[in-house]
Design a protein that fits this description.
GO terms for molecular function: transmembrane transporter activity. By secondary structure, the protein is α/β, with parallel strands linked by helices. The protein has helices spanning about 20-40, 50-60, 85-95, 115-125; strands spanning about 65-70, 75, 80, 100-105, 130-135.
Length: about 150
């Protein structure tokens, strides 16, 4: 069995190890460099006001192109179910003889936002110049009062 002997000649090392501190500071610097540009991308936009009755009259026409997205993620062109990949080609086929490239879109309130955006991308890929988003008319009795 060995005897532990304290060597009085050796001094305690009191130097600060700065390597972990530099690593943490570099990670924080990178995080702030990535996040800072994202904070400045907020743009305030005043949206145009439109008369909903005029839009609904155009959407109710017999030859209007209407795309619908259900809450379970299915996409319909008129009354026919289509896939997102076929949506652009089928819309462009319906709009080839029309002068106004206008499409109307209905989406369920609980529809997945990603599915709705995929449908919008499919509509835009068909060369549509105007996309109308259809909503239900709010009851005036149940509407909240603005102060």
């Amino acid at each position: 069995m060995g005897i532990n002997k304290r060597d009085e000649g050796k001094k305690v090392n009191s130097n600060i190890n700065v390597t972990p501190m530099v690593d943490v500071m570099l990670v924080l610097l990178i995080i702030f460099m990535v996040i800072t540009p994202m904070l400045n991308n907020k743009v305030n936009v005043d949206l145009p006001k439109a008369d909903a009755a005029v839009v609904m009259e155009d959407a109710n026409k017999e030859d209007a192109v209407v795309v619908a997205v259900t809450r379970d993620g299915r996409t319909f062109l008129g009354g026919d179910q289509v896939t997102i990949d076929d949506l652009g080609s089928k819309i462009s086929a319906k709009l080839e003889n029309k002068t106004s490239k206008q499409v109307f879109m209905r989406a369920d309130t609980r529809a997945n936002y990603g599915k709705v955006m995929d449908a919008v991308d499919g509509i835009r890929s068909a060369g549509v110049s105007q996309l109308g988003l259809l909503t239900e008319k709010r009851d005036t009795e149940s509407a909240p009062v603005k102060k």
